[in-house]
Structures are given as structure tokens and as C-alpha cells.
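Student: Hello, beginner here. Can you help me understand the protein record under this note? Any guidance would be welcome.
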Amino acid sequence: MLLLPFITISWRWRWRWRRAFRGWGYRQSYHNFSLSLLENFSHPGAFNQILSHAIASGIFRDPFISSKLLYYSFSHHHRHDFAFSRTLFFQIRNPNVFAWNAIFRAYSRSSFPTETIALYNLMLRNGTPPDNYTFPFVLKACARLSLLQKARELHSSTLKWGVFPDVFVQNALISAYSSSGAVEVSRAVFDMLPTLIRDVVSWNSMISGYLQSHRYELALKVFGELLGAGSPTPDHVTLVSALSACGRLGLLDLGKKIHGLFMTTSGFTLDVFAGSSLIDMYSKCGQIEDARKMFDRIPDRNIVCWTSMIAGYAQSDLFKEAIELFREMQIGGFAADAATIACVLSACGHWGALALGRWIHSYCERNGIEMDLKVRNGLIGMYSKCGDTQKALEIFHGLTQPDIFSWTAMISGLAMNGESDKALHLFSQMEMLTDVRPNEITFLGLLCACNHGGFVDKGLYYFNAMTQIYNLTPNIEHYGCMVDLLGRANLLVEAEKFIRTLPIQPDVVIWRSLLFACRNHGNIEMAEFAAKRIEELEPRRCGARVLLSNVYASALRWGDVKRVRKDMAIQRIKKQPGCSFIEIDGLVHEFFVADCSHPETDAIYETLTGINRALQSSPKGFGTEEEDDDDPFDICIAIYGIHFLRPVTTKLDHPKVKKDGQ
């Protein structure tokens, strides 16, 4: 017997039921019941009254009526909690395929897609044959769960039940295979679809499949095939996918053409969906100004638009702008989500804004923002970059199941803060796990730990382990770390030999690492060789010439120093001043060399002058002539923190050097 709560039936609904059944036969009354009552109500209470009448009158036993009631229960009773509808479903004695499809449809879109698979298996055991509406729902659950084997099984079943030619079934197969990592099979299914049968969803599914597998060139190739076919017409989803591929590949010109296609498409409106995609494309192509123009043109921005613009600023190393836009978003009354928080935390970490990062952490806890793994990884990175490795470790050890990004963030965080032994120990713990495998970025953090710790032998071991144990291919950053490691250990000959044997062309970062090592160890001949290689790659940049000048100065070769400086002046190459910043009470202050724009400039330089006098009167003196020109300036921002006698977080940043990978 169906156990449902007692519901009072109003006189108005009783009158409607009498009118619906009057003058109809038994079977006809069922259809009249469903059409006149089920399709003409909006209040959930009305549905409960209809359901109670169906049970009391016995007509719930009719499969047509019970299936209709089940279908409407998902949309009018509990949109997220399916317990009521599930109970109702299992009260149907012999559910037809319509009832099964109704529950498949609901669960495939819910947070419990596994229930779709379990219920599908139950339907087969009960002997109910699936139809062409069944498979798209079940395949959607497979796609969400990345169940490749189950997708293959369902593929065979579509042939068995004769529904494979249906375009909706084939579109679902394409998506299921793509989401499960079998994009080649997706392409085979797509190619089997006759050109005249393919609809825009077929093309979108194939393009999306290539995007999911990071094959952006092939995604654009399929997009080109669609345009060449002339039919069907691309929709918003098609164009947004093509823009995403352009952004990933940095194809600005093609992205602009697709943007123009957007504008000429019939019915185009710059909604949040299209606007966010254009912001992302322009940001990834380095056109952050154009991205901001698109952001400003979107009429009704939502959180996705704000997040896209904040992420664009962060990816362009404009961390100050990213944080300011986040504050603007807060003032506008937009509630941040997990994706927004992750982007802002990245900006805080790179900018050294520890106080703001802590506020965002507490903001998440106060407002109940889902602290998913991506947000927690962002917190680990932020605290590590700001120097608070203890807090980063606390969050890391609190993770129930850290992924490779969690391990990598923590290993890299320990490495950049000079805690090399802890970083290597953490990696050894990760190696004992079976469900986490290190990637290229993990080894980059590991090699940095060896650099800071001076562990040459361990660095060589881990570098070889990349290829020999983990089958990973080193890239230019890994080779740069090895050159830096050998250079720091004064193994300059070995470092040069390592560069000459590289399987790829060394870039300016590698030669600059060697030049830094030559400066530190006074090897003038090799410094000249490295500087010449850098000048060939960057003839208009000042970095190599300044470093070479410092090498000459350390060897008291003032004539060579003068010659290098004179050559820079003749070629009108100027040294860009360093930029440093310090955070006090959540506000970040920026300083440039010889910068007098800060309101506290007089107090800062007065304090600095007093310290200089004290140091000059000291037997040890202030320093040597070979010190870098910006060293007193770096001390200057620390003076600003001392001037206020507050705990501060400092971050020293020389943009030209850092942009080149140092």
C-alpha cells in the first residue's frame, strides 16, 4: 500500500475532477484526468491533492496515469531531493518505459548520476526494453562518471535494440566517449553519422570532445568543417567552444574573426555566456585591454563574468588589478563562488597580500562558500607564496584526499621558502601512494628544492627519475633548474656542457642562469660567453648587460664597466627600475627606485639616512661597491614597515628579471 501523508482536498479541485470525469468512459477518463489536471497547476499543494485523489480512486494503478504523476513529481515536489519521487516510482507495479525514462532523466542531471546506472540495470532485470529516449539519459550519466566500459556496453545495446541510427543516441555516445577519454571512438561514431542527419548538437559534441582532451587544433578543424558544410548553422555553444580553442592556442586573429561571426549571427546578443568566453579568449591571447572592454560592455554581468575578468588579470600578472576588481565585485553585491575565490587567492599569493588572503579565507568560512579541493589548493599556494608555510601545511594535512595539485602546491611552497628537506620528505611520502602520480610541475618544485638546498646529487637523481621512472619529458624549465643547480654549486664547466647537450634550443632563461652563476663565482670568461648568447636572443633588453657590468665591477675592471654602460647609452637601452611592495594592514604599497610619490616618502628617507649613518660608522661598513644598484632600495621598503612598527609581509619583485624566469 502506498504510504503518503494525508492531504485535504479542496472543494474547488473536487469540482474540477467531477467535471473532468463526467460523460467519459473509464479509459477516456484517465486521459482526461492527465490532460485537464496534471498540466494545469502551478502550486505544489495542488499536485499533492491530485496525487491523493489518484490513489484514493484507484486510477494510480493505470501505467499512463502513474507515469504522468511520476514525471510531474520531479518538477513540482522536490527539485533536488528525489526521495519522494523515488518512493512514488517503486509503488508503480509494472512501470512502463516512460516511467523509467522519467527517473533516468532526473538522476542523470542530479548529484547522484550513479543511481541512473543502477536503475537502468534494474530495468533490464525486470524485462522492460529500453527505447531511443532511454540511452541518452544513461549515457549522460556515463559521461559524468567517465565510465568508458559502461559506455561501450550501452553502445552495443543500442545496436541490439535497433536505436543506434537515432541522432540523439549517437550524440550521447559521442559525449560519453569523449568524457571517458576515448575521443578517437567519438570521432568514429561522429563519422558514421550521415552528413544530412548531423545536427548542431552532433558538431558541438565533437568539438567539445576535442576540447576536453586538449586537442585544440582538431577542435578548430572540426569547426572549420562545420562552416564548410554550410549546414547546420553554428549556435552560441559552437562559437563559444571555438573561442575557447583559440584562447588555448593563442590564435588572436582567428578569435577576432569568430568574434565577428558572433556579431553577424542572426539573433546574437552579448549575454553572460558569450561575454565570458570572449573575455577568456582575449585574456589568454594577451589582449587584456580588449578583455576589459568586453567585460564593460556586458549589460547584466553575473559571477561568471566577474570571475573570467579576475582570472584574466591574474593570468596576465596584473595581480593588483585582479584584487581591485574583486573588491569592486564585493561592493556591487555579487557573492563570490569557489572559482572566484581560487582566482583571487592566486593573485594574493603572487602579490604577497597575506592579510587579504587571510580575510578571504575567513570570508569563505563566514559565508558558507564550498571549500572544495580547488579552493583549498589555492589556500595552500597563497599561504606558501606569502611565507606562512605552517598554515599551508595545516590546510594540506587537513585534506581527506589530496590530489596531485595539492601535493605539488605544498612541495613547491616548501621549496620556495627554503625548506628543502621538508619538500623532499613530502615527495617521498607521495611516492608511496598508488593513486597519485607526480607530473612535470611536481618535479619542477622538487628541482627548485634541490636548488635552494644545494643538493646536487639529489637534483641529478630526480631529473633522471623523470624520464627513467615516470616517463615524463623534461621541458625548458626543468633544464633551466638543472643549469641553476650546477651553477650554484660552482660547477660551471659541467653547467656549460649540460647546456651544449640539450635536446632543445636553450632559451634566454638558461643562459641567464649561467650568467648569474658566473657573476656569483667570478668567472668572467664564461660570463662574457653567456652574455653574448643572451644578447643574440634579446638584443634590446638590458638584463645581460647589467649583469655583465656587475661581473666586471666585482673583478675591479672599471674600464669594461664603463664600456658596457656606454654601449647601453649609445643603443638607448635603459635599465628598468625594480619594483617592490610591502603589505601593511591589508594595504599593499608599491615602490620604485628613486620613487618619491609615496605620501610617507620624507619619513622613509629620513629613517634610511639615519640607518646609513649608523652603518657607515660601523667597523663592518654598509657593503661593497659590487652590490646591485637596487639593494638600498630593497631596504627602503623594509624601512617603511619599521617606520610603522607593525608586523608586515614584504615581497621583493624585479619585473624584468622575474619575467625572464629568475
Notes: Residues 1-31, 620-633, 642-662 have pLDDT under 50 and may be disordered. The first helix runs from residue 11 to 21. The longest strand covers residues 579-584.
